[in-house]
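Support reply, case 0932

Customer input (verbatim):
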Amino acid sequence: MNADRRGFLQGASSTLGALALRSLFGGDDGKRPPLAARAKNVIWLHMEGAPPTLDMFDRKPTLDRLHLQKCPDSFLQKERFAFIKGHPLLLGHQHGWIRGALGTEVCELFPHLAQQLGQCTLVRSMVTDQFNHAPAEHLLFAGAPRPGRPSFGAWASHGLGSENRDLPAFVVLLSGNLPSAGKALWASGFLPSVHQGVEFRAAGEPVLYLQDPAGYDRARRERALRAGVDLDAEALAAHGDPETAARIAQAELAFRMQLSVPEATDLASEPAEVHALYGTTPGQRSLANNCLLARRLVERGVRFVQLHDSGWDIHGTSPGDDLMTQFPAKAAQLDRPLAALLVDLQRRGLLDETLVVWGGEFGRTPMNEARDGSRFLGRDHHPHCFSMLLAGGGTKRGAVVGATDELGHRVTETPIHVHDLQATVLCLLGHDHEKLTYRFQGRDFRLTDVFGKVRRELMA
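Our regenerated output:
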């Protein structure tokens, strides 16, 4: 290739690369949402397996009084359980309660979080359509109970673009195992692949191949990048394939991430006081480290940070899987970091513009599962009611929304479906959930499918 042709292609690739990035991300400063946005960023903490929120935020004295008595027959009529067989016994709370901020009762295993409820909206009346993990997670994060649809973070990236041209718009952090629905929970689906979540690893390089190979300096790496972009630019000009534009944008972003990601993920640079606040240990894979990293990422303009923490599927099938051992262990891992995240965002002036969402994919039954006659205490899957926490980003502070019956079996006041939650979060980000669409295979798709309504009860 002669010098004139190379110079032309390099100029063209830079122009086309910039245009590709701008068309996919809305330019370096992101897209302006059509509605007045209350939140710029989202941190979504997903407790994979579904925590027993009945035992965390929804005290039921009647359930305690009827502990180990047969549940009402009405609970079993036309009901499907994942594992419960026969006529189960009611299961009272196994831990005490304390008064949190604004007088809200909280399980005694969460003393730090209890003091931060004044910053939160506690929703006690969430409902879903699915009672198995993977379908419920797909429904929560992608709007349908089966894989293939774009995830929530991908929709946010598509609708809002990136605030920081050197970091992904959508980042995923894991503590523990993959969720039941796997990496589909941060997939781009039929959206351009540039919108899929980028998983940051807890050990070693945060993202694979950040370091140049041995014998490769940065200048040589850039020349290799430009050669690839030259070829992609020709293909883009000839065919206009959006995936080619995505490949150009991804290659250029990856090159810039070699410098930006190590700085953003350097938890050791935080002062000792911050590590004490979160209870973090740099270099360790933990929910605490991921909560601190999430704050650092939104501080640097990452739009959507999705944390997955496994170990919450507490059925009571063994000594390490019951409300007396596993639940307190998970509570200890969650309590300080989640409270610290809210404190840290507030004192840095970030909570007003950062929406924090905490919860699982469904609830747990008010009955003891007793699978195969197990003598350990645990709860089965329950789609009819569960609790979630929202904080910041235009939500109410110190509010409790919704209620359940005296045994925690069904919602009695203000049911909020997961589609309603999706519509409300998009509204807080400045998007009408019915209008944020993408045409695929001849029809317009949206995150909420054909459901959902914005719930003003959750908004300040």
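We compared this against your earlier run and they match. Two observations from our side: The first helix runs from residue 3 to 25. The chain has twelve helices and 17 strands. Please reopen the case if you see a mismatch on your end.
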